[in-house]
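Researcher: I'm preparing a figure for a lab meeting and need a structural model of a single chain. I don't have an experimental structure, so a prediction will have to do for now. The sequence is pasted below. Please return the structure as tokens so I can convert it later.
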Amino acid sequence: MDSYGSTGAPSLEARGLTLAYDHRVVVDDLHLVLPGGRVTVVVGANACGKSTLLRALARLLAPSSGAVLLDGRDITTVPTRRVAQVLGLLPQSPTASDGMTVRDLVARGRSPHQRWWQQWSRQDEEAVDEALALCDLTLLADRDLDALSGGQRQRAWIAMTLAQETRLLLLDEPTTYLDMAHQVDVLELVSSLNRRDGRTVVMVLHDLNQACRYADHLVAMKDGRIVAAGAPSEVVTEDLVREVFGLPVHVMTDPVAGTPLVVPLPSRAAAGVVAP
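Model: Understood. Here is the structure written out token by token.
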């Protein structure tokens, strides 16, 4: 079995990447190298091109120019099955059929490993069981997805991507619509998977403080371009947040995590008005 603890992570990068919808450019001449075995988080204001970039990295959107390189090879030339064996994607709002159980969903992650002459195998069963265990879903395996809480359901989708046994995970806003407790639950799970086996993770997140806490590598985007990239402590400054989000803030050190903590300034302070 190609275990979760296998060493080595495939490389993924974008070179001169331009992405467009109906000739409307969303990402323009973007260059990005994703550090292997690390957690990269992409941040930026709405409609800046974060999710579009992730779709292109997953080969769901063909570039207008430039290329996405998987292990140095243009990803559009890599067979679809091979891409699915190397790279797993969790989109923003995944959907499943009515009446599907947790185990049924997770088992879908084994599709890239199926062949017409070799269907379900012991290796497939082991991969599903391991993914369920890693996501703390073993006792919920036979439960309908519709009966789960938001956090449990999101863990089930992550388990499906784990069952693919890929070394690259792309997660597009995995905490959307979750309350704070479930957000932390999902992010801790993703972080633990990275620490456990060095899996490369790329996430799009809206919450800048969560991004700072969980990212090894932070990418800040604005208007389809990368404004800054690097360790959160190097990237997140008051000037950067003002430029990317148009928001005046104070940046301090998180007393728990030691990472940057972004505190929005009240409107009166932002306007330079001092309270009596």
